[in-house]
Structures are given as structure tokens and as C-alpha cells.
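Question (not urgent): is this output format expected?
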Amino acid sequence: MEPPTACRGSPRSGEPPPADLSKITATLLTGSRSVPGSAAAVMGDAGQAVAWLAGHLLRNGSRLEAGDIILSGTLCAPTPISAGDRLVADLGELGRVVADVS
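Got this back:
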């Protein structure tokens, strides 16, 4: 799959995420489809998923470094997309991201 030709977002800077990351919800909109999602779908808690990763790396002689980017999982179920689709991921108070697929 080719990367999106345009991707823009409106993250909320300066405000910390909710203390309980499992409470973060999302809605993926593509065309007329709306796909709901929740951070609780990421091993029950995205923070626990990242803690598991850190422990796994440590047991295998590696570690997370400052500045590492970690994608802990997807909040919404995988959804088919096609060229020409516009994807809108709405993360509520955390902001939204828009991507046009070519």
C-alpha cells in the first residue's frame, strides 16, 4: 500500500491524555462507513501493552530509548480502503487526523 498523499491532524497540544488510557475512544470515518474503536481493545490497556513491550525487550537484551515511537495497537478494527478514500480518525479530546489515499 502506498503512503497517503496528504495527512494532516489537529492534535491537542499542552493537554495531557486521560490518566486511564483505556478510556480513549476513536471513530474512523471513511466514505459512509463509521468504525468505532476503543483503546481498551489494545490488550485491555495501551499502557500495559507498552509495559509488556519494554519488559520483553529488556529480557532479550534491548530496551526502549528516549524518542522511540511506539505504536501499541489499533483502536478501530482493520477496515478496507481504496485509492480515492478520505480517512478521518477522530480521537475526541486528543484531536483528529485526516488522510487522503492515492
